[in-house]
Amino acid sequence: MESRLRVHGHPIQPMLVTFPFGLFVSVVVFDLTDLAGGPEFLGEVGYWTVVAGLVAAALTGGAGMIDLWDVPDGGTRRTAVTFHLVNTAMAVLFVFVCLVRSGTPDRGVTGVLVAVELLALVVGAVGVWLGSWLVRRFDRPQGEPGTLDALRPGFEPAP
Length: 159
Hints:
Layout: E1 6-7, E2 10-11, H1 12-35, H2 41-68, H3 75-102, H4 111-138, E3 142-143, E4 156-157
Parallel strand pairs: 3-4
Antiparallel strand pairs: 1-2
Helix pairs in contact: 1-2, 1-4, 2-3, 3-4
């Protein structure tokens, strides 16, 4: 499987996955701190971090859809589609959290919403595992000749 979107021979979509997942983990940290009696502004920070994570998830999903066109039929395609569905499920759970929080004046969080966020992170962890499996299994390393990239096993010069 070859990615169409690359930077210096490396696929972009696996790099982008770290942004929404990292932002969503940050949301949970902010919200748990808010629930534990931290400063009130952490509820607002958590809300806007959810919004940023959803924007990042949309951009990552768009890049993933472009790569999905080139996935061969069979088990690889099923795994790639499952990867995208799992990541979409995580984003949908965070959309739910965002919509519920947008209706409150202080954008605060409740224990139930934190439980939904934790469930979304578990779902997202499955997506990260599937994505890493796809990259390790089907992405050939590419890079610039004359750099340290050429020392990696399986190196192919970037076209």
